[in-house]
Amino acid sequence: MIDKYNFTEIEKKWQEKWKESNVFEMIEDESKEKYYVLEMFPYPSGKLHMGHVRNYSIGDVIARFKTMKGFNVLHPMGWDSFGLPAENAAIKHGAAPGDWTWNNIAEMREQLTELGLAYDWEREVATCHPDYYKWMQWIFIQFYKKGLAYKKENPVNWCPSCQTVLANEQVVDGKCERCGAEVGKKNLSQWYFKITDYAERLLDNLEKLPGWPEKVKTMQKNWIGKSTGAEVLFKIKDFDKDLEVFTTRADTLYGVTYMVMAPEHPYVKELVTGTEYEAAVEEYLDKVQRMSDIERTSTANEKTGVFIGRYAVNPVNGKEVPIYISDYVLMDYGTGAIMAVPAHDERDFDFAKKFDLDIIPVVDPENPEIDVNNLQEAFVAEGNMINSEMFTGMNNREAIVKIIEFLEEKGIGKKTINYRLRDWLISRQRYWGTPIPMIYCDTCGWVPEKEENLPVMLPTDVEFTGKGESPLTTSATFGDTVCPVCGKPARREMDTMDTFLDSSWYFLRYCDPKNTEEAFSKEKTDYWMSVDQYIGGVEHAILHLMYARFFQMALYDLDLVSNEEPFVNLLTQGMVIKDGKKMSKSIGNVVSPAEIIEKYGADTARLFILFAAPPERELDWSDDGVEGSYRFLNRVHRLVYEYADLCKSAPAEYKAVTKADKDLAYTLNYTIKKVSEDIGGRFNFNTAISSIMELVNEMYKYKVGEK
Ligand code: ANZ
Ligand code: ZN
Hints:
- By secondary structure, this protein is α+β, with helices and mostly antiparallel strands.
- The chain has 21 helices and 30 strands.
- The strands form nine sheets. Strands 10, 11, 12, 13, 14, 15 and 18 form a seven-stranded mixed beta sheet that branches. Strands 2-1-26-27 form a four-stranded parallel beta sheet, covered by helices on one side. It has a four-stranded antiparallel beta sheet with strand order 6-5-9-19.
- The mean pLDDT is about 95.
- Bound molecules: ligand ANZ and zinc ion (ZN).
- The site of ligand ANZ has 18 residues, from β11 and β15.
């Protein structure tokens, strides 16, 4: 009598066995080659979704495969557990963010266990635990001492609805990434990390990451946005300071017909105060400050601007050109001012048309269809120089080099590199995050808390109103302290850290999660790091992966780790969609993992997810597909039962006797080879599973004793 495929019983039995015997616990073992497989740790929202199931099933197969191959495998799991949702729950339901979070963690740990994932739970970390954030604070202090952390007043992106500062990266199309509200600007004193010091290395090292998807590297490259050009000095008539501009097109210097300064440029006020232009400039500035950078630089917008009544002098030909302010020039890129060349720049062309400014071509389109003296649009391609005195006739690429040389000789310009990457704004006016371990003393200024006093604990006597400053300001116990340097009364920093800091080094803490003396020991990280295979969503291609790389490099420079790059290989898994759309509550097409596990078991869920599509591709959820996976597992189950007795009595060493025996032995070995290659090489789990399905078919056909 064949037992029904009772997945609940089977899965429970094995999960308990694994737990009892600690099979997934890993200890450093120098005699074995290590393999570190890591999935991006989740935010403990309380509910696992299919994206998680996919991410973790992929990691699970790799971990188990490498274990079978004889590696000492590190496969940990933990919680990115600081962040806004816990605080919003506190505002809405009055629950303490800590309680809410720890409950969610317990629930999700349970769900991951039910999924049968091979994690070493001994290494679990939660970023909201003082054992973790103590070391987060310690790392902050090391960065501060190295000059990588600083405070400055700056107009920052401000979400009026979340009442918090947002990093540029968190503003999408001028809107708050989280709540969708229109983002404005606000002047605030904020903490920054000098990630720009690492721009060149973050870019160069991409070359050393052949195991990363090209598309992710391209996204990082664009985000860093290296741009080689020149800074050129223009004299301002009747003014004691020069106007410096950044240009990538030094070849177009003879085509400059006007200048544009960012409305916030520090000279603008001086240049217009007391003139008839003052009022119009003020009004324009006020309007611009409420716009996002994206809106400002969009080429689709009709150009706006104000003439400020002043002129600049072109250093190569002495020509005087009018100076404007306009929103399309940003203060925090280059020098905050440009030389405008309408003949060869699209935005300048539109602006010149609108304000009726001259258009002087300096690169010849050499195209009979284009009337060079009456351009209908900017000519942005390459060509030979015209209207450019001694540079006329040269190819414009060459002219860029020659004109920069000329400017350098004359001391009116120099070659420069600019990056789009900005310093990382890391402070948040929020409660549920790591307190920034800095203290302000009237005598000593900003000083770090003494390391022996870490962690600076999050207080619990706070109020959540969802408005204004950090809730930490409402605590009666938190703010007042003494200066670590002079001992006088002093105030603690009330802001907390961006949660992206927490996730920038958790992979190091996994190597040594219980260390009470250090963030992690070098010995342990030397053994386990770098991560051999990192797996996660492509939505983290820029921020998380860039920040983690920056942390690793900075820690390397502090001699705390031995590798410059944290992740050798990266796999970005595709989304799980249903009926062609992202699963979402509002569409009502969400399939919950719990439901599937209850109906079919975790093995069916995992099998379906791995079988339905290669890991990088989108996975279209299919109920029929799930049924199919379930039927297959039933088939395997029946097969095992059918032959169970025979297997028990089988000799220790198997010998193929008949042709059928030999054929099956061949298929078996072929399958082993195919599965090893499919999983070991490019993670083609789907084709590995198909060959196992074929093997099962062959086994069904096989009849013992048949010739
Ligand atoms: C003159 C010129 C002529 C330019 C031409 C382009 C084409 P990337 O490649 O992104 O670095 N620019 C410089 N600073 C700016 C700022 N703060 N806000 C807006 N635009 C700025 O772009 C560099 C070019 O963007 C620079 O080269 C400058 O315009 C403009 F035919 O200078 B160019
Ligand atoms: Zn002091």
